Structure formats: structure tokens, C-alpha cells
Amino acid sequence: MRPVFYEIKRSITSKFSIVIIIAIIGLSALVSYEVDASSISGTSSASVSDISGYYIHGGNVTVVTFLYNEHGDPYTGSVPTLIANGTNYTGKEVSPGIYQFTITMKQPLVTFYVNYTINKFGFRSVEQSSIVTVNSRSPYSGYEVVGGLQNPRNSSSLGALIFYVGPNGNTSPPATIYLGHYSPGSPPLDVIKDHIAEYNYSGFTAVALFPSLNASSLEKINAVMIVQNNVSFGPYFVGTMSVFTPLTTSSIASNIFSTVGAILTLFIPLLAIFMGYLTYGKDRVTGVLESVIKRPITKGGLIRSRFLSNSVVIVSSIVVAVAVSDFIFHRYNNVYIPISLFLYIAWAYSIMGVSFLAISYLFSHVLRSLGALLGLLIGIFIVFDLFWSVLFDVVASALSLSSTSAAYVSTYVLFDYSSPAGYASLIQLFFTEKMGSIFSAGQSINPAAFGVTPLLIVIAGILWVAVPFTIAHILASKRD
User: Which of the four pLDDT bands, split at 50, 70 and 90, describes residue 214?
Assistant: First the structure.
């Protein structure tokens, strides 16, 4: 086995690495879930709804129920039952989220009760129930429209779900659908073009619609109008918008930095420092290799293989943690993190981790005592990772810098460039264009005006890794 592959295996299978990696990924998932599940989108399991239609064929009535989440997507985590004349019927799933019940008609007007069970937050079951009334004089229910769908692209909840059941379950014929501002006496005039999701099943059609909104849409009544074969259906009112915030790359970045970023900022430097100490610094200071080498290897080859293996473990942990957070974000917002943002986030925390790793390798060639080396590395972690923002506050206060002044922002950026732990803050500033705590609104600024550009960010990252490791490599090869 080549040295680098052996060292990767050794790094990732150590008890300390396993514990920290599990903590990084697990806590990232937990925090992402807590933030996203309590956001405006709610949780799919806690926001399940149903809509039903029917059609009559001969002496039977077929009830069709569609279970959907807050975005209008099919919900498949439950099988509904229907109660008719004291008898329970189990739904037959004909498509994701769509269930059929066929019952013999015994009276002109029939009332059915649809029940289903959902898991709320994965801990307990919640019983849901709705009523379906079948009129024997109407052979099919036709269009059903409900509002309140939450738009995965912004903060509005004016989406409408249109559910159609035709004669003998035929799908909806061509129709023109309007969704927009409503005024008494005049239908909405905006033709729907933004079909977030459309499901055409065998016999049934469900369409999730969201209006094109802007700030002028505030406090306007919105409604759906359907025109089919020159016959109008509606208006179906879907609500009044009081909040509108588009889901942008900046808002996504703020979400990610406030969730997985908070975990990575704490645990990645910790993983890097102790991994560097346990797999390289300890052997270097004591002069005893814990691993057995079967073939000759130079001092330069040893430091390169161990540094590379440690870096692979750190970067892999970060990518997995961000990917898990991305999956959870998509679960509750129906969008994935933009590729550019994903790469920048992975780059930011990788630079942070590998920089601390390089620093630990460097000081392994400066100090001769295990206790002194471990103490210094812990001190570096505490200063750069835990108290760097406190030091900035002290400096800003001593210089009497106003938080809204250009000097304050420049000093803030300078401190971020001066610390490997502050590197991720530069990426956050670049994407969100806001300076301040990841948990606060922050101060809006132009990052480029203060030297926060992609080129400078990349150069700073390379220097933070290359400088300490190059010095450590020279000391390992030439002096020790």
C-alpha cells in the first residue's frame, strides 16, 4: 500500500477522528433540520393536507384523494382510509400521493370521511380527517382549488393547487388558467406561466401554481380563474399577500452559514489541530513512528503523505456535512444550494481546516516538548477560533470606530484576512453582502469596495495553507 493511502486509512480510522467526524456531520444535519423545519416553509410532515374529488360510474362512486405537502408535491408517507356507512376502506395508491376508493352508492347524497395519519417531527402520529360529499346528480366533481401553498422560491404562501377529476376519471381537457389580483366584477387577468409542479396521472390531474409576485402585490387579493371550452370556473380565492421575500443566493448563503457553518467553524479547526498533533506532531517530537513503514521513505515524503492524508479527511468531512445540509435545505425549500455557493463554502472551510493543520505541522518542528506543542496548538485554536471576534471588538472600541464607518468595515475585513478561522466570514460577506453576526441581519456593504473579491479570497486561502506548510516542509527536509 502506498504511504498516502495507508495514512488516509490511519487518519480516518483513529478513534478521535471518528468521533469528531460523526459530530461534524451529525450536528450539521441536526442544526440544519432545526432551522429549516422551523422556517417559513414549515415541515412537510407537519404540513400534509388532502384534497378529494369523485366520479360516478353505474352504481359505484370512486373517491380520489390527493395527499400533498406545503409546496403541492405528493406526500407518500401515509395511506388514507375512507369511512362510509360505518365501514372502513383502505385507499389504493394509483400514483404517488393519489389514492382511490370505490364504493357502492346506496343513497342520492353520500358523505364520506377521509382519515390519514402523519408523523410530526418524526416523534408522534397526528390524525387528520376531512369530509367528502358526493352529489348523485353530478357525475363527477371536476375542478377543486385550494390556496395556501408555500412558494419554494420566496416567502409567499399564495400558491394554488388545482385538482381535477372528470367523468370516469378522465384527465382535464385543455384549459386556460388565470391567477392574479382580483377585483369584484372582473376576473384576474394574469395567465399562469409559473407551473412549479404538474402531475398528470392516469385519470387525474393535479397542478401546483404560484403567481409571479413583486412588492406591488402586497395586500392584494389573489384568485384563480379557469376557462375551459369557453366555460369559466371560479373565481377561487387563494389569499392576500402580506410578506414577500425572494429566495436568493444571498438568503440561501445566510441560511447555510447560520447552520452548518456554525458547526464547521467550531469543529473543523479542532479536528485539524488534533489530527495534526496525533498523526504527525507526536511522532515528530518523540522521534518514534507509531506506524510501521515497510519501504524506505524520505522525511519530505513522510510529511507530504501525512499532510495530504489529513487534508483528504478534513475536506471529505466538510463536503459530506455541506451535502447533508444541502439535502435537508432542499427537503424543506425545494431548491438546492447553487453550485457556485456550494463550492465556495466547501473551499472556505477546507482552507480553514487545512490552514490549522499546516500550522500544527509547522509548530511540530519548532517545539521539542509534547506538552508545549499541545498547549500551544490549543492556544492557537482558542485565540483564532473562539476569541478573534472579541479581539476585533476590543480593537474597534479602543480606536473608537463607529460600526457604520468605512474604517470599521476595513478593520473587520482585515481581521478576517488575518485569521484562518475568519476565512469563512469572507466568503459569507462576499455572498450575502452583509457584515455582522451570522445570526443577525448585519450591515449591508459592497464587498469589492473593501477588498473582498474572488481573486483576493483565493489568493489569501492559498497563502494560509502554502506558507506554514512550506516552512514545515523545509524544516523537515533540511534541518531535522
Answer: low
How far CA 343 is from CA of 40, 247, 321, 389, 425, in Å, comes to 26, 19, 13, 25, 15
Task: At 182, give phi and psi (nearest 5°).
Answer: -115, 135
N residues, the chain: 480
Peptide bond into 174 cis (omega under 30): no
Nearest Cα residue to 475 out of 281, 201, 242, 230: 281
Does pLDDT of 351 surpass 90?
yes
The whole-angstrom separation of Cα 387 and Cα 392 is 9
> Model-level pTM?
0.63
Element (H, E) at 375: helix 370-381
Q: Return d(Cα 428, Cα 261) in angstroms, integer.
A: 10
Rounded Cα distance between 447 and 457, Å, is 11
Q: From residue 200, how far is each of 98, 203, 207, 228, 255 by CA, in Å?
A: 11, 8, 8, 17, 34
* Max mean pLDDT range (31-45, 219-233, 436-450): 219-233
Q: Residue 337, exposed/middle/buried by CB under 10 A (0-12, 13-18, 19+)?
A: buried
Sheet holding 221-228, edge to edge: 176-181, 221-228, 231-240
Q: Per mean pLDDT, which range of 186-200, 238-252, 454-468 is the poorest?
A: 186-200
User: Which helix (H) or strand (E) is 205 found in, with range?
Assistant: strand 204-209
Answer positive or negative: Cα dihedral of 107, 164, 47, 97. Answer: positive
Query: Would you tell me how many other CB atoms lie within 10 Å of the CB of residue 372?
Result: 13
Q: Is the pLDDT of residue 196 over 60?
A: no
Query: What is the distance between the alpha carbons of residues 338 and 348, in angstroms, rounded to a whole number?
Result: 15
* CB atoms near residue 480 (< 10 Å): 11
CB 330 within 8 A of CB 336: yes
Tell me the Ramachandran region of residue 56: left when phi exceeds 0, alpha when psi lies from -120 to 50, beta otherwise. Answer: beta
CA dist., res. 407 & res. 389, Å (int): 16
Buried b (16+ CB within 10 A) or exposed e, 68-89: bbbbbbbbeebebbbebeeeeb
